Amino acid sequence: MDEKAAVGVFECLSSGVRLGVFRLLVKAEPAGIVAGDIASALDIAPSSLSFHLRTMTQAGLLRVEQEGRFLRYRANLVLMTEVVGFLTENCCSGVAGGCRDGDLLSGRFPGCGSSNPVRESKA
Amino acid sequence: MDEKAAVGVFECLSSGVRLGVFRLLVKAEPAGIVAGDIASALDIAPSSLSFHLRTMTQAGLLRVEQEGRFLRYRANLVLMTEVVGFLTENCCSGVAGGCRDGDLLSGRFPGCGSSNPVRESKA
DNA sequence: ACGATATTTCAACAAATTTGGAAATGTTGA
DNA sequence: TCAACATTTCCAAATTTGTTGAAATATCGT
């Protein structure tokens, strides 16, 4: 997962509405939910929901499948797994071990890669 | 971590600039980087960077410390750990086990909580 | 074929975000 | 005290995002 894809996903999750949609769809796995039902469950205007659904689908976060005159949406858990991977690898310290164990932080970091000379002050 | 806090963090990460700042600071742990150096490393106008830095600090993603006339920023790894937790708990399927193992998906979900009656079609 | 339904697309608009320059604030070293 | 510097705040402009209602598209049941 590259940075651009990650930004796309975070963009999706950075809206209360979209995060709500996604959480709803995660709970609804693997059945998925039809657009109209998402709209009524979350009380969003169909037109507005459609806008968010398209955004999320383009980002790869959702999968759609036509079902008669309904469109059934499902959460893409594979992508979300990759996002968690991206976060732990790139955003939870470069130190090996990831950030699952709490003692990682606020403790002492031996050399921290030796690539970070502490600059006291420039001028 | 509640939904509102999570949205705040995702908002921060939903900008290429801010994600770049955060990744840079994660690599620079635990030394942190002074504002001016972030600006030159990422080639952002100081005024613009300051705007993003404030946003991220308010969201709790960054920690600041004054150092003479410099301001040293550091990534808040604790919060990021919580975000990963939020994601695995709320966005990687309600099924116990989280989303660390790949076979979670695309497989069969026994009953999926029995709370998801598949609706064939409403009308 | 027809009317009802599900969803999307479109256009217009309101609201929020982002940017960069200029000025303000505060710190340093002499 | 003063000049240089780091950073922020303020402000205006450009861009992006989100919402709404109306119209379009497509499918269903009869």
UniProtKB/TrEMBL annotation, chains A, B:
PROSITE patterns: HTH_ARSR_2. Residues 1-95 form the HTH arsR-type domain. InterPro entries: ArsR-like_HTH (IPR011991), HTH_ArsR_DNA-bd_dom (IPR001845), Metal_resp_trans_reg (IPR051011), WH-like_DNA-bd_sf (IPR036388), WH_DNA-bd_sf (IPR036390). CDD domains: HTH_ARSR. The keyword Transcription applies. It comes from the Bacteria. Keywords: DNA-binding, Transcription, Transcription regulation. The keyword DNA-binding applies. SUPFAM superfamilies: Winged helix' DNA-binding domain (SSF46785). SMART domains: HTH_ARSR. Pfam families: HTH_20. This is Helix-turn-helix domain-containing protein. The lineage of its organism: Bacteria, Pseudomonadati, Pseudomonadota, Betaproteobacteria, Rhodocyclales.
